[in-house]
Design a protein that fits this description.
This protein has 7 helices and 8 strands; from the N terminus they run βββββαααββαβααα. The protein is of the alpha+beta class. The longest helix has 19 residues. It folds into 2 domains: 76 residues, OB fold (Dihydrolipoamide Acetyltransferase, E2P) (Beta Barrel), CATH 2.40.50.140; 168 residues, de novo design (two linked rop proteins) (Up-down Bundle), CATH 1.20.1440. Helix 1 runs antiparallel to helix 2, helix 3 packs parallel to helix 6 and helix 5 crosses helix 6. The structure holds zinc ion.
Length: 249
Amino acid sequence: MALIKTKGIVIREVSYNDTDKMLSLITEDLGKISVSAKNAKRNGTRSSYGTQVLTYGEYVLFKGSSGYHLNSCDVIMNYYNLAKDLVCFTHAAHILEMAEDAAKDSEISSRILVLLLYALQALSKGRNPLLISSAFALKLMQICGYPPHVSNCAVCDTYDIESIYFSFKSCGFICENCAKQDTDAVMLDTGAAKGMLYVLCAEKGGIFNFELSDKVLSVFSTVAFRYISQQHDKSYRKLEILKNLNNIN
Ligand SMILES: [Zn+2]
């Protein structure tokens, strides 16, 4: 039986039977995979090691007729500390969900894994969770091959733009004249437009190395999350819990 070694992060764990778990991993070279982990619910056993969500490790697997099975894991890093803070953890869960949807394509899963690790690292360091998750959404769309058009007006091609709008119909920046025909476009202040350009141009850990005021971040994150929802044709609802909590308080 040939063993396969791959680095990956656990993005989902589901219990089955009394003792076993089914894991979803985003891996460096196998794309997003499901892995059956027998006896993983027995605390202290070798097979329970490395099977929790937010564990990054080197996994040794074998492939059976019904898919991958866990043999062992060397934990490289875990991000369990994010669970201590509800806001942080909710954004981490949102990031995992967006990554899971994007990683269906195994060709880009290694780039998604790297982006994911930098985002979780930034969250662990106490960076603004809304900034990290919205920058993640935008960069993820670029990695997936759907970067928004930001070099000039996506409709009339002009570079002479006084007020920048973001068009969901044209998937990018448009000028004030074209915005008159696109009532759904969102006006971006310079800070939000610069933030988007920064994220699209930055690489690796630098992607999250910027700051926005709360007001600018509110526009930036609204556009980034709506853009990924549109591209994935899906409503992401994890952050709604935070909005509801704010309304209660
Ligand atoms: Zn235009």
